[in-house]
Specification:
Layout lengths: L5 E4 L13 E7 L8 H7 L3 E9 H11 L4 E3 L6 H13 L4 E4 L6 H12 L15 H10 L9 E3 L7 H10 L8 E3 L6 E3 L1
Antiparallel strand pairs: 1-2, 2-3, 3-5, 4-6, 7-8
Helix pairs in contact: 3-4
Length: 194
């Protein structure tokens, strides 16, 4: 319904062929197995703990694209070395901390934006979301910030499109799938909104 947002950090010198081996910074709710009907109710009211994790990007691709059949969209960001360092250091500091996870407000997208706000305090990205934070809206916000967004998105579709022109049409007309967005992080300047 909403999608998911995570941040991929590529190493210097990493190529498009090796980016799958990069690490990703993720924020997600710790939901016990078999949560059943309690899952949406507890998520709406912030009854789950949300944690940051750092795992290989290919595990996220496997989960979201290969298992959950979602499209993945990668967006390259312009972050300075100092901004990237601040982002990574703050994510590291938050490694064992938890935050109440609210599906509609303080979710994966909100907390990735909070890390970007820490990296560059002049951005005020989280200030734009008062009632809810939807991954597609966070992508639109990042793309609207002058100098933050660098290139056209890269699509990693779950199911190959029927034609190359379909993906081209989606990009030109802004008809991107809402299921999955990613702000990807390449060569120290790429972030991935899933």
């Amino acid at each position: 319904m909403f999608g998911h947002t995570l941040f991929r950090v590529d190493q210097k010198g990493q190529t498009e062929q090796t980016r799958i081996l990069a690490y990703s910074i993720n924020f997600a709710a710790d939901v016990p197995a078999g949560a059943g009907l309690a899952y949406p109710i507890r998520g709406i009211f912030g009854s789950y703990k949300g944690y940051f994790s750092t795992i290989p990007y290919y595990l996220n691709v496997q989960k979201y694209r290969d298992i959950e059949n979602r499209d993945i969209w990668e967006y390259r960001l312009n972050l300075t070395e100092t901004q990237l360092r601040r982002f990574l250091m703050h994510a590291w500091e938050l490694g064992n901390a938890y935050f109440d996870y609210f599906f509609f407000k303080e979710n994966c997208s909100y907390h990735i934006l909070a890390l970007l706000d820490y990296a560059d305090p002049s951005l005020h990205l989280t200030d734009e979301f008062l009632l809810w934070t939807v991954p597609a809206d966070t992508v639109r916000l990042i793309v609207s910030k002058p100098g933050l967004y660098r290139t056209l998105p890269i699509a990693l579709p779950a199911v190959p499109s029927s034609s190359a022109s379909e993906n081209s049409y989606r990009l030109k007309n802004g008809a991107w799938p809402i299921e999955s967005r990613k702000i990807s992080r390449s060569s120290t300047r790429r972030c991935s909104l899933d």
